[in-house]
Design goal:
Blueprint (H helix, E strand, L loop, with lengths): L7 H15 L3 E5 L5 E4 L1 H7 L3 H4 L10 H17 L3 E8 L5 E12 L3 E10 L1 H46 L5 H32 L8 E4 H13 L6 E5 L5 E4 L1 H17 L6 E8 L3 E8 L20 H4 L8 H11 L4 E5 L5 E8 L2 H7 L1
Parallel strand pairs: 7-9
Antiparallel strand pairs: 1-2, 1-5, 3-4, 4-5, 6-8, 9-10, 10-12, 11-12
Helix pairs in contact: 5-6, 6-10, 7-8, 8-10
Bound molecules: adenosine-5'-diphosphate.
Length: 369
């Protein structure tokens, strides 16, 4: 019997099926009742559902249960209006993982309304990147608002001091008061300088441009200096040093001071009802450990692991205490770059012990003598 050659229509259908199966996008078709009559091989491979199980409304089983109702609503609204649609939802992949897909559907006329034909594209990577950017932007806005507030407070107070000074300067015999207001304005300038320096340090760390100038110094002297500096604007607490010894260190003196002052200022700031802070020095063969203990608000257990992160502030207490959440991040970078370790032990309401170590490397010490 003579073999029949395929009709042109059959050829077109074969060609379409081949094309639809090889295209990397999932393709579907529904009839004029909204029931699926076709899904391509890419869909079958992606979802792991059989062709037969996907037909009708079976495809809905692969849509994330939380997205199903919404997706159905979008489709039905477009279907009733006979208009094209576009939506995003999560689709279960054959390995069980849900992936974000972009769904697009166009109306099919043949020549009467014959249903829809549409595609599904995996956009998980773009979606996750978009979500991460959104979170980052929120964090940036949050930080901008905290930073502006922190910078504005000393500026406002400095302006008030300068206005009073201006008035006092035209009155006679007000020298004492003038001095006092110059002192106040100066204090606020120092606060601003510290804030701006912290911001600059973060930029330097990020750009890998934080530089260190090492020298040999006695840690006891540095501690005493730091205590004096902190005490000059915090008379509420007694600072007691234990275990002090003549320990020579090879490090960047200014940066180590910065870490100690940050720990001490925090110890005072976060213990408003206490009256003392303890500094404890310990030494073994290899390391010097400096621990600063306060008897303040402490840190909730679930927050401890984030405490050295950039911009991190304990939310429960952040409204009550000023700060940018940068000091500990900078301190941890400084200590790590010195080959030391940094940590904290604390319980909420029981105070905190912030500590760091510095290597007692003998080589540079011997060379310097
Ligand atoms: P800042 O104090 O400017 O917010 P830090 O980086 O120095 O920034 O500290 C980060 C956060 O860690 C603080 O906001 C605070 O929530 C918490 N913290 C730091 N030191 C202490 C401490 N001694 N006691 C309790 N919480 C602290």
């Amino acid at each position: 019997m003579k073999k029949l050659s395929p009709t042109p229509r059959k050829l077109r259908e074969d060609h379409f099926t081949e094309l639809a199966d090889l295209i990397p996008t999932m393709i579907w078709k529904v009839n004029n009742e909204g029931s699926a009559t076709y899904v391509n091989k890419t869909w079958v491979d992606f979802t792991g559902m059989t062709f037969e199980n996907s037909l009708g409304f079976g495809w809905g089983m692969a849509v994330h249960p939380d997205d199903r109702d919404n997706e159905f609503k979008i489709f039905m609204t477009a279907f009733e209006k006979r208009s094209p649609f576009q939506s995003k939802f999560r689709l279960r992949r054959s390995d069980g993982q849900y992936r974000w897909v972009l769904s697009q559907g166009n109306v099919l006329y043949n020549p009467q309304f014959a249903g829809y034909i549409g595609s599904l594209t995996d956009i998980t990577e773009q979606e996750l990147a978009q979500q991460a950017t959104k979170i980052l932007m929120q964090k940036k806005d949050e930080f901008m608002s905290i930073a502006s507030h922190e910078l504005k407070t000393p500026i406002t107070s400095m302006k008030a001091s300068l206005q009073i000074l201006e008035r006092l300067s035209i009155q006679e015999g007000q020298l004492q008061q003038i001095y006092s207001f110059i002192g106040k304005a100066n204090k606020q300038v120092n606060k601003l300088i510290t804030l701006v320096e912290d911001l600059l340090d973060v930029t330097k760390i990020h750009a890998g441009k934080m530089q260190f100038n090492h020298s040999v110094f006695n840690i006891e002297e540095v501690l005493a200096d730091c205590v004096d500096q902190v005490k000059s604007h915090a008379i509420s607490h007694q600072i007691i040093i234990n275990g002090a010894d003549e320990v020579l260190i090879f490090a960047d003196k200014h940066r180590i001071e910065q870490v100690i002052i940050n720990f001490l200022s925090n110890a005072i700031k976060y213990s408003p009802d206490a009256d003392r802070v303890l500094i404890n020095l310990q030494k073994d063969e290899q390391y010097l450990k400096i621990a600063i203990q306060d008897f303040g608000i402490g840190i909730p257990a679930d927050k401890i692991r984030y405490i050295f992160n950039r911009f991190f502030r304990v939310e429960e207490s952040s409204q009550k205490f000023s700060g940018l959440g940068l000091g500990l991040y900078i301190s941890s970078e400084i200590v790590k770059r010195h080959g030391g370790d940094i940590g904290v032990e604390s319980q909420e309401g029981e105070g905190a012990i912030f500590w760091f170590t510095l290597p007692l490397s003998q080589e540079p010490l011997l060379n310097s003598i």
